[in-house]
Design a protein that fits this description.
The structure holds two protein chains of two kinds.
Chain A: E1 4-7, E2 10-14, E3 19-25, E4 29-37, E5 43-48, E6 52-56, E7 59-64, E8 69-74, E9 83-91, E10 99-100, E11 104-109
Parallel strand pairs in A: 2-11
Antiparallel strand pairs in A: 1-3, 3-8, 4-5, 4-9, 6-7, 7-8, 9-10, 9-11
Chain B: E1 3-7, E2 10-13, E3 19-26, E4 32-39, E5 42-52, E6 55-58, E7 65-70, E8 73-78, E9 87-94, E10 105-106, E11 110-114
Classes of the chains: A mainly beta, B mainly beta.
């Protein structure tokens, strides 16, 4: 099955800094999503982005499907951005069964 | 708008006891429904998914089972819990129309501790 790898595993930032999180996947995908899990465990869907670029406020994401990677950009980080960011992907065939990466744990300090 | 409800939020159960976790979705019809488990704060593993009433697919062999008695209701069960069943269980849904390319939305999860 598809493999999803995320980097870095941990990231510490000062408030106001920018960051880039990376997601590599091992096979062609037709579904790529980014999620944020807050310290209370709630998982929020940030982007559905199998290809191209999307922006939502201070967050943006780019997926280059032909090169099998996706990037999540966080600009002007805030303490509320802390948590774990997950990338998940599923392959071109069959029912949507998202495979999750192990996540990037982000801590934004004031 | 669509909402997903999952309960209870936390649960402590002794080994060998039964389990029933419930999930319901509001504001949509014919959703795809999923149960995921997260262990040790990282990595989500898909346990079950369902495309309709009574239709359940299992992804990994385990001590758990799932049922979908109504269109927007998904239940995770066990007859006898094991210590290894401890974890954070998340229910999720996606729109039926786009099985290959639909955003996934999660409930708030149930933190299960088996003692």
């Amino acid at each position: 099955g598809i493999q999803v790898e995320q980097s870095p595993p941990d990231l510490i930032l000062q408030e106001g800094a920018n960051s880039t999180l990376r997601c590599n996947f091992s096979d062609s995908v037709n579904n790529l999503q980014w999620f944020h899990q807050n310290p209370w465990g709630q998982l929020i869907n940030l982007f559905y982005i199998p290809s191209g670029t999307k922006q939502n406020g201070r967050l943006s994401a780019t997926t280059v499907a032909t090169e099998r990677y996706s990037l999540l950009y966080i600009s002007s980080s805030q303490t509320t951005d802390s948590g774990v960011y997950f990338c998940a992907a599923s392959m071109n065939t069959g029912f949507q069964k998202l495979v999750f990466g192990t996540g990037t744990r982000l801590l934004v300090s004031p | 708008s669509q909402t997903i409800h999952q309960w209870p939020a936390t649960l402590v159960q002794p080994v060998g006891s039964p389990l029933s976790l419930e999930c319901t979705v509001e504001g949509t019809s014919n959703p795809n429904l999923y149960w995921y488990r997260q262990a040790a704060g990282r990595g989500l593993q898909l346990l079950f998914y369902s495309v309709g009433i009574g239709q359940i697919s299992s992804e990994v062999p385990q001590n758990l089972s799932a049922s979908r008695p109504q269109d927007r209701q998904f239940i995770l069960s066990s007859k006898k819990l094991l210590l290894s069943d401890s974890g954070f269980y998340l229910c999720a849904w996606s729109p039926r129309g786009g099985a290959y390319n639909s955003p996934l939305h999660f409930g708030n999860g149930t933190r299960l501790t088996v003692t």
